């Protein structure tokens, strides 16, 4: 049985992606860091639609937590493997660079980049060994493509994730593992709740924020069999904000 793992699956884009994957008939592992109630709610929503899911709490930036949680899962699922990985966990800690506390720099880079590294490194060997290969989708951002003032940490982390996506895609292409990134603009989630929405919507050619379900549809496509020949790509989804 091929499973999917969505990091940061408890809320926002991650929750919508879990639901999308479950609708594709793929059992999903919902990772979260601390918000158990939100993770339980994602699980409930998946099951309410007849899908199958389980929870896995770990902090993606802590190597020992990642490896222990995934080893536990593998021990409990000797005949299964995680063929679909969505590296979605992320945070923002905005500030002008000259005023940015060190921990805000490191937290953003570690969760985005170390998180991608630890989780992906752990799952890749099994993906590469199996006949059906695997699919990896990394959640980048418009911020990582063009740079956003006040987000040097976030832009740096997401731009680095794009570089890692392209490098890894070339490493594993011959093993039928695809690696792509998705770069959303402004999407309605907890992460964007504190932003001046009316002002920002005027900058978006489509004059609105995107919905988590719209990003989830794109991720679902990249995970599907139809996307087998797409790899090393960064696909923007931003209402025309950066074209
Ligand atoms: P969100 O609503 O704030 O949700 C963040 C998710 O990440 C939560 O599930 C959270 O878990 C999880 N998480 C945070 N730190 C973690 C850690 N150390 N280990 C494991 N999980 C962790 O954010 P979102 O808007 O859905 O964003 C999801 C991804 O899309 C992020 O990578 C973000 O940078 C990217 N993105 C978002 C937008 C946007 O406009 N919303 C635009 C571009 C890119 P808990 O629930 O346990 O806290």
TrEMBL record:
One Pfam match: adh_short_C2
The keyword Nuclease is assigned to this record: no
Enzyme class label: oxidoreductase
Molecular function, one GO term: 3-oxoacyl-[acyl-carrier-protein] reductase (NADPH) activity
Sequence ranges assigned to domain Ketoreductase in this UniProt record: 2-190
EC number(s) recorded for this UniProt protein: 1.1.1.100
Keywords assigned: Oxidoreductase
Record-linked Gene3D superfamilies: NAD(P)-binding Rossmann-like Domain (3.40.50.720)
SUPFAM superfamilies with a match to the protein in the record: NAD(P)-binding Rossmann-fold domains
Family under the similarity heading: Belongs to the short-chain dehydrogenases/reductases (SDR) family.
UniProt protein name: 3-oxoacyl-ACP reductase FabG
Organism whose genome encodes this protein: Candidatus Parabacteroides intestinigallinarum
